């Protein structure tokens, strides 16, 4: 498995993986598929030195991605806070790829200037809850019944992992 910075040519695979997550209603608040065109500008805002997007590639196929997004619109006071998002191709789930991607991104946080890592997930997403607990994320908030996903009210959990500052 190769984990590398995503390039624009990976965007179609990233969108395909993301769109696979929509029907389950567990991983995204999007309820209809998105297009590459919808996300070109989104993709171009990523910065490998500060807010990267990485892909996991296996046998030449992108099977997952992980990325950091600036919190609260990228306002300067929140510069040391980022949200982590991980998506794995359905056929590649339950093989440890999500764990590996999240682990590597957490390890990179000090060099990326991230001290507060947020994970926001639906309260019925037990897989993400378990993975976050394994890495030491602590619940910091729970917004109940905030989303309507396929006709069902869902809550959003906000969990935080404090990242130790990098040694100088």
Task: Write a structural description.
This protein has a domain of 117 residues: Aminopeptidase (3-Layer(aba) Sandwich). It is of the alpha+beta class and 168 residues long. 27% of the residues lie in helices and 35% in strands. It is globular and about 35 Å long. It has four helices and seven strands, in the order βααβββαβαββ. The termini are far apart.
Q: Determine the CATH topology of the domain at 2-118.
A: Aminopeptidase
User: Order of SSEs, N→C?
Assistant: EHHEEEHEHEE
* Beta-strand proportion: 25-35%
* Amount of helix: 25-40%
Estimate the global geometry from the Cα principal axes: globular
The overall pLDDT, averaged over residues, is: 94
Q: What is the number of beta strands?
A: 7
Low-confidence stretches: none
CATH architecture of the domain at 2-118: 3-Layer(aba) Sandwich
Q: Describe the strand arrangement of the main beta sheet, using strand numbers.
A: 1-2-3-4-5-7-6
Number of DSSP helical runs: 4
Q: What's the CATH first level of the domain at 2-118? A: Alpha Beta
* Straight-line N-to-C gap: 31 Å
Main β-sheet description: 7 strands, mixed
């Amino acid at each position: 498995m190769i984990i590398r910075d995503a390039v624009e040519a990976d965007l179609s695979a990233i969108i395909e993986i993301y769109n696979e997550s929509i029907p389950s209603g567990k991983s995204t608040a999007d309820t209809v598929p998105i297009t590459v065109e919808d996300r070109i500008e989104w993709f171009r805002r990523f910065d490998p030195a500060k807010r990267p997007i990485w892909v996991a590639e296996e046998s030449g196929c992108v099977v997952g991605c992980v990325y950091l997004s600036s919190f609260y619109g990228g306002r300067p006071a929140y510069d040391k806070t980022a949200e982590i998002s991980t998506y794995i191709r359905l056929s590649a789930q339950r093989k440890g790829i999500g764990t590996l991607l999240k682990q590597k991104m957490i390890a990179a946080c000090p060099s990326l200037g991230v001290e507060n890592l947020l994970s926001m997930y639906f309260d019925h997403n037990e897989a993400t809850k378990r993975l976050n607990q394994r890495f030491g994320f602590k619940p910091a908030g729970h917004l109940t019944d905030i989303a309507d996903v396929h006709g069902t009210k869902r809550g959003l959990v906000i969990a935080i992992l404090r990242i130790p500052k990098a040694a100088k």
